[in-house]
Amino acid sequence: MMVEKARLRSWGWFLPFLLVLLLAGGCSRVPRIIVLEDPLTAAEHVELGVAYERKGELDLAQREYERALRKDGKFYRARVNLGNVFLAKKEYGKAREEYLLALELRPGDAEATNNLSWAAISSGEGIDEALVRMDSVVSGSGGRQPVFLDTLGVLRMRANRPGPAEEAFALAETLCRQAGAAPREGVDKDAPCPEEVLREIEEHRRELRSRFP
Prior knowledge:
Layout lengths: L1 H11 L1 H14 L14 H13 L3 H14 L4 H13 L3 H14 L4 H14 L3 H13 L6 H13 L3 H16 L17 H17 L2
Helix pairs in contact: 3-4, 3-5, 4-5, 5-6, 5-7, 6-7, 7-8, 7-9, 8-9, 9-10, 9-11, 10-11
């Protein structure tokens, strides 16, 4: 009996030490939380978003534009591109919000105004407001371009103003066909006009004639 008690006493110092080791071993299995910093700049997220958008991967493009805006909430290009994604996804209210935020950054901007107009055209809401904004763009410096005049014509058509709509379409088509020719007074020099823009103008003129024969 005395020997057994001596053995117990001799091992008594080791038990607390063993408990500490077991606890330490258990703690080592707790996962460490690692916060990774986003290595991309806002501009790089936009570039990635554009690549996704061109491939038709709109959800991924939206994610990248939103990440860009988390890094820089005043990034105009990210705002407009995000609006374009929402427009393509037919989420017109969200598209409108993004274009209006872009216009807060660049008041009167032609691109944001044009795209805001198409959100109105597609949804059928806010036509009158978009028409006022688009009239201002076309009347301003650099606004007399076929693509903007075509948008103005569609807005006027939706607002049941066939005469002014035809005037906008006719001028848009004329400028489109004259693209690259010597500039005339009152016409913006080198106004770009891809073939698909000319086709759209012609389609809109046919739509106008069918609506208002």
